[in-house]
Amino acid sequence: MGVITGQRIKLLREEHGYTQRDFAKVIGINNSVLSRIEAGIRPVEDELLSKFASFFHCTADYLLGRSDFRRGRLVTDTELKEFLPPEVVNKNKIEMWVDEAELKPETKKEITELLKKHGYL
Questions:
Q1: CA 114 – CA 77 distance, rounded (Å)
Q2: Residues with Cβ < 8 Å from 47, sequence gap 6 or more?
Q3: What is the CA radius of gyration of the chain?
Q4: For residue 91, what are the CA distances in angstroms to 29, 56, 87, 121?
Q5: Is residue 115 within 8 Å of residue 85, measured between CB atoms?
Q6: Could you tell me which residues are beta bridge partners of residue 61?
């Protein structure tokens, strides 16, 4: 954890219209703690990371810089079977994250193209 986490927390805080002081109060931490987190000086404990993710409706992976998707979710095999042959889904145990509330036709097309490109179809 570090600079990326701090930058993303600061970005989200500002997008939500909070000053550092006000947001620290809402989250229940000291303003100086938030300041050091945003500067990348202080690591974020798991419990606090979970609070940030919950407050901002994003994933911890996004806050940690492991993903560029703020609101990822696991696509179920049932959803994949709607547009992929079931034997492909079952054989390869395909799971993937998408940044969508629903799988839109464009997203289905992109997934299919990626699976073809990597030899799954």
A1: 16
A2: none
A3: 19
A4: 48, 37, 6, 11
A5: no
A6: none
The per-residue pLDDT for range 68-101, each reduced to its tens digit, is 778 766 666 777 777 777 766 666 566 555 555 5
The values of phi and psi at residue 22, to 5°, are -65, -40
- Residue ranges, comma separated, of all CATH 1.10.260.40 domains in the chain are 3-64
Range 3-64: architecture per CATH: Orthogonal Bundle (1.10)
Which tokens sit at 33?
A: 């703690």
3-class SS string, the chain: CCHHHHHHHHHHHHHCCCCHHHHHHHHCCCHHHHHHHHCCCCCCCHHHHHHHHHHHCCCHHHHHCCCCCCCCEEECHHHHHCCCCHHHHHHHCCCEEECCCCCCHHHHHHHHHHHHHCCCC
The per-residue pLDDT for range 28-72, each reduced to its tens digit, is 999 999 999 999 999 999 999 999 999 998 989 889 998 877 876
